[in-house]
Specification:
By secondary structure, this protein is α/β, with parallel strands linked by helices. The protein has 3 domains: 2-220, 3-Layer(aba) Sandwich (Rossmann fold), CATH 3.40.50; 224-297, Alpha-Beta Plaits, CATH 3.30.70; 318-403, no CATH class. Helix content is 41%, strand content 22%. The strands form 3 sheets. Strands 6-7-8-3-9-10 form a 6-stranded mixed beta sheet, with helices on both faces. Strands 2-1-4-5 form a 4-stranded antiparallel beta sheet. It has a 4-stranded antiparallel beta sheet with strand order 12-13-11-14, with helices on one face. Helix 3 packs across helix 4 (106-119) and helix 12 crosses helix 13. The longest helix is centred in the last third of the chain and has 31 residues, at 318-348. It comes from Butyrivibrio fibrisolvens. Belongs to the ABC transporter superfamily. Residues 2-231 form the ABC transporter domain.
Length: 404
């Protein structure tokens, strides 16, 4: 399991990751979806220990990525957006080098490399220099190094960059084959790839997690009613009359004029997710109204993505921060001045305002705080003191009467 807890990462004035938290478990392909600059790559770099967060923690299978880096990194295979390749090595030499880095037992290295070459379809390229490979095959070599050591967590940052359509399909099939025994994390800003492969989607925008869930859950959360768009060769009054007996219709909006085909466009909205297309079609047929077009308008993953990612960038407003600090400092000074005035007024009356146990307490803690906040005027303190003195005198008189 991977647990990311409240991580923050700032570059100068830009907050790339803003208090991000989530948990991932084995058996699913997770898609990090977001526009360029959303913080996807930064989050992945933090999760792999490549860079450190300003604050927050990342735990992989119970190992903190900063406190137990070797144990945590042993669980992770990572393909960054730009694969970390040595161009002067052959594919086989490079994979043997990575095996040494990941401490694969020597007697298992050859068998391990053969399997990885087969999985990534690089068997015919083992003895080729990496610098002579196409961009797509370099991407495959990067994927192969991520699989060395059979890590439990596979993190892939834009893994299909540079691949042709056939290679993309092969890569997607391969990612699906990994999910039963691994946590697979795919980062992309290409909606179709995430939709085709991922079981669970996390949408990021400006360093924040703005939506998460399966594609079905995300769409179901937005499509709480059915919306039908219909083009009809009939007058508005005829359209409304034909739809009268259909249940669940909430509203009918009809255009003001006919289109080029002489049809009116009507938008029918229901009060639930009940599918009324069949009922609507039968109603128009019964009323002998020709239907030019009937389509269902649904909020798709693309709509959700566009809505969720249109936010203000995460730049830090230093002017606002300075103003808030200045106001806080001024308020602190006012508190000090108010408390000082309270104490001086009390001492002038021979009383102690700050000891709750004192019988001569002028102001309660609550009243002192009000005075500090400006809710109790300093000029009124004399009145408070007078009231306290009057109370003390009355108390003394009562005691004398009891003694007599």
């Amino acid at each position: 399991m991977i647990e990311v807890d409240n991580i923050v990462k700032t570059y100068g004035d830009y907050q790339a990751v803003n208090h991000l938290s989530f948990k991932l478990e084995k058996g699913k392909i997770y898609g990090f979806l977001g526009p360029n600059g959303a913080g996807k790559s930064t989050t992945m770099n933090i999760m792999t220990g490549y860079i450190a967060a300003d604050s927050g923690t990342v735990t992989i299978n119970g190992h903190d990525i900063l406190k137990e880096p070797e144990e945590a990194k042993a669980c992770v295979g990572y393909l960054p957006e730009i694969p970390p390749l040595y161009m002067d090595m052959t594919v086989g030499e490079y994979l043997r080098f990575v095996c040494e880095l990941k401490k694969v037992p020597k007697k298992e290295v050859r068998e391990h490399i053969v399997k990885i070459l087969a999985d990534t379809m690089l068997g015919d390229y083992e003895h080729r220099m990496i610098r002579n490979l196409s961009k797509g095959y370099k991407q495959r070599v990067g994927l192969a190094q991520a699989l060395v050591g059979d890590p439990e967590v596979i993190i892939l940052d834009e893994p299909t960059v540079g691949l042709d359509p056939q290679q993309i399909n092969q890569m997607q099939d391969f990612m699906r084959s990994l999910k039963d025994d691994h946590i697979v994390i795919l980062s992309s800003h290409i909606l179709s790839q995430v939709s085709a492969v991922c079981d669970y989607i996390l949408i990021m925008s400006h360093g924040e997690l703005v939506q998460q869930g399966s594609e079905e859950e995300l769409e179901a959360g937005e499509n709480k009613s059915q919306v039908l768009k219909v083009r009809l060769l009939a007058e508005p009054s005829q359209i409304k009359e034909a739809l009268k007996g259909i249940a669940h219709i909430k509203s009918i909006e009809i255009g003001d004029s006919k289109d080029a085909d002489g049809a009116y466009e009507a938008v029918i909205t229901t009060d639930s997710t009940v599918d009324i297309r069949k009922d609507v079609g039968l109603a128009f047929a019964k009323a002998s109204i020709p239907v030019i077009e009937l389509t269902e308008k649904r909020i798709t993953l693309e709509d959700i993505f566009l809505t969720a990612t249109t936010q203000t960038p995460g730049y830090i407003d230093h002017a606002k921060v300075r103003k808030e600090k200045k106001e806080e400092k001024e308020l602190s000074e006012k508190r000090k001045e108010a408390k000082k005035a309270v104490k001086e007024a009390a001492r002038a009356a021979g009383l102690d305002p700050i000891m709750p146990e004192s019988e001569e307490e002028v102001l309660s803690d609550e009243e002192l705080e009000k005075a500090a906040m400006g809710e109790l005027d300093i000029e009124d303190i004399d009145d408070v003191i007078s009231e306290e003195e009057s109370t003390d005198k009355e108390s003394v008189s009562e005691d004398e009467e009891e003694n007599e």
